[in-house]
Amino acid sequence: METFLWIAILCITFLIMEFMAWFSHKYIMHGFLWVLHKDHHKKDHKSWFERNDLFFIFYAVVSTSLIIIWGEYNFWAGLPLGIGIFIYGMTYFLVHDIFIHQRFKWFRNANGRYAKAVRRAHKIHHKHLGKKGGECFGMLWVPMKYFKN
Description:
Blueprint lengths: L1 H31 L1 H8 L12 H20 L4 H23 L12 H14 L23
């Protein structure tokens, strides 16, 4: 039973992170921390790194802190929570930074229906260079209207 609960917490954490990514993108990145996110929409720099990358550090600190609390204070749920956030972060990095934005030249030939829909939805979001406008979607779900042939 304990193993089942541990796996359930990890999976639920992963799914909640999808909501957190959508929420933080829409209301924080396109809100009061636009100053950190705008270089992701408008490339006005020559660096491979973006100020937007600082958001990864925030979630890494949260994930690491939960794992440390698990180890130091015997908070058993800290490990599945921390690992769930970490796995979501790695998945987000693979889908958003590598697959969509091609920050590394991997997965260039992925052209299935879902892959095309994810790219199409993200491209429409990036048409908006300003703080306002542009739909925000999660990484794992894409509205059906983007599943064109």
